[in-house]
Amino acid sequence: MKYHTLLLTAGLLALTSLSAHAKIERVVEKTFTVQPDGVLKVETQGGDISVVTSADSTVKVVAHERIRASSDAEADEILKKLTLTIEQQPGGVSAAAKYEKQLPGFHWGSWPPVQVDFTVTVPAHYNVQLHTSGGDVTVGDLVGKVDARTSGGDVTLGRISGAIDAGTSGGNVRLEEGLGEVKLGTSGGDISVGRAVGATDLGTSGGNIEIKSVENTLCAATSGGDVRAGFAGPLKGDCKLSTSGGRVKVVVDKGVAFDLDASTSGGDVDASGLTITIEKGGAGRSRLSGKVNGGGPLLKLRSSGGDVVVQTR
After folding, report:
1. Residue 8 pLDDT grade (very low, low, confident, very high; cuts 50, 70, 90)
2. How far apart are CA 203 and CA 185, in angstroms?
3. How confident is the model at residue 109 (pLDDT cuts 50, 70, 90)?
4. b vs e for 96-130, b when ≥16 Cβ sit within 10 Å of the residue's Cβ?
5. CA–CA separation, 293 and 277 (whole Å)
6. Residue 80 above 90 pLDDT?
7. Quick check: bond before 234 cis, omega within 30?
8. Alpha-carbon distance 180 to 253, whole Å?
């Protein structure tokens, strides 16, 4: 009976604590007239960043402040330690939310006590540099460069015409279409790309990698998942796909010419349908290398724990 009483008391205390620290929201908005091809810089602690485009020659920044406070007066006190900067600078617009550093010692609840999410509207021709220590980063279709980082959320990108350098320490990365050079990375999630027109470099420490349409060189590596890629047209250069614990599957056009170097430590190589002059190994073995349709750029496929499959369409 005493044990149940303790549980009930603890539950009531938890509910009291939650109700005493309900979230109060404040919104700050600023709009600037800008020139195309400028740079948007956004940085926040733990909040989400979302960028969309419009036909206007303006940048509109909306900062959503979510404060853990029991009253407006308490929220006002918390906000005194928040530095929120939204300003126009030569060449673009910057927005940053930084909270006063936490003092050493025990603290009740998560830190900081206010989370700032940014929603920004930019011209279609614009560049972005985005960083959050724990939230999601989302960018719609953009004619410009994207540099995006988050320490714990997902990165979702639309159709991007410029160079892309984006990554997360713990979430997934998704790209609809990259027309320029692409570099995507995550320490624990999946990477998925719809179409990769430029040279592409993808890496994850624990997830799957999938590229539906590869139209340039590709380097894709994962330490724990599968790698799947479909090549559209001829290989533009040497490509390497590797995994330490999964399966590698590649689909190529039937008449494409390339040098194949495929091997696995824990499965078989299946290359049925290829017209190949075998130099080492063979189909159904752990290694197969040779010239496909007379040879060309190198397609290097490696797996330490699964099968390697090459199919034609």
Report:
1. very low
2. 5
3. low
4. bbebeeeeeeeeeeeebbbbbbbbbbbbebbbbbb
5. 8
6. yes
7. no
8. 23
Q: Across the strands, what pairs with 209? A: 191, 227
State how far the Cα of 128 lies from the Cα of 109, in Å rounded to an integer: 33
Residue 16 contacts by C-beta under 8 Å, 6 or more apart in sequence?
A: none
245: confidence class by pLDDT, cuts 50, 70, 90: confident
Question: What is the structure's pLDDT at 273?
Answer: 86
Cβ atoms of 291 and 276 within 8 Å: the answer is yes
Scan for tokens 């824990």, then name that residue.
Answer: 266
SS3 110: coil
Give pTM, 2 decimals: 0.90
C-alpha–C-alpha distance, residues 217 and 90, integer Å: 36
Written as six digits, the tokens of 130 are 């985005």
Q: Which residue has the tokens 């590698």?
A: 248
- What single string gives the DSSP state of each residue in 117-166? EEEEEEESBEEEEEEESSS-EEE-SBBS-EEEEESSS-EEEEEE-S-EEE
Kindly report, residue by residue over 10-69, the tens digit of the pLDDT.
Answer: 444 444 443 445 789 999 999 999 999 999 999 999 899 999 999 999 999 999 999 999
> Which own/partner contact pairs does 107-111 have at CB distance under 8 Å and 24+ positions apart?
109/21, 109/68
279's tokens: 């130099």
